[in-house]
Write a structure and sequence with these properties.
This protein has 119 residues and is mainly beta. It is built from no helices and 11 strands.
Length: 119
C-alpha cells in the first residue's frame, strides 16, 4: 500500500491562503481515492474534501465549499489542498488519507500537518 507524507502547513493570517501537499510513495497511487481531514483538540476528526482515484469526482464539506480546492497529479503521486480565505476556525491538524474502496473508512494516513490561522 502507499505511504503518505503531508507538507505545507504553517501560520497564516485570517483571509490568507495555504497550499497543502501530500506525497505518496509505494505502489499504485492512482488506484486510491484520496481525502483531506482535519482535527482539533475540541472536535472529532472531520472530512474536509475528497477526490476520486481518477480526479473526476470531488467532494467538499459545506464549510469549505468555494474556499478550498482538492486536486491530484497521478503522474507525480501527489494530492493538494488549496485553501483560500482562511479563518480561525480552520485551525487544525490536517491529515491526508487514502482508501482503495469507493466507500468506507480510510485505511492509510499521513502524520498530519498543522495549520494555524491567526486573527
Amino acid at each position: 500500500q502507499v505511504q503518505l507524507v503531508e507538507s505545507g502547513g504553517g501560520l497564516v493570517q485570517a483571509g490568507g491562503s495555504l497550499r497543502l501537499s501530500c506525497a505518496a510513495s509505494g505502489r499504485a497511487f492512482s488506484n486510491y481515492n484520496m481525502a483531506w481531514l482535519r482535527q482539533t483538540p475540541r472536535k472529532e476528526r472531520e472530512l474536509v474534501a475528497t477526490i476520486s482515484w481518477s480526479g473526476d469526482t470531488t467532494y467538499y464539506a459545506d464549510s469549505d465549499k468555494g474556499r478550498f480546492t482538492i486536486s491530484r497529479d497521478n503522474a507525480k503521486n501527489t494530492v493538494h489542498l488549496q485553501m483560500n480565505s482562511l479563518n480561525v476556525d480552520d485551525t487544525a491538524v490536517y491529515y491526508c488519507a487514502a482508501r482503495i474502496t469507493t466507500y468506507g473508512g480510510y485505511n492509510v494516513w499521513g502524520q498530519g500537518t498543522q495549520v494555524t490561522v491567526s486573527s
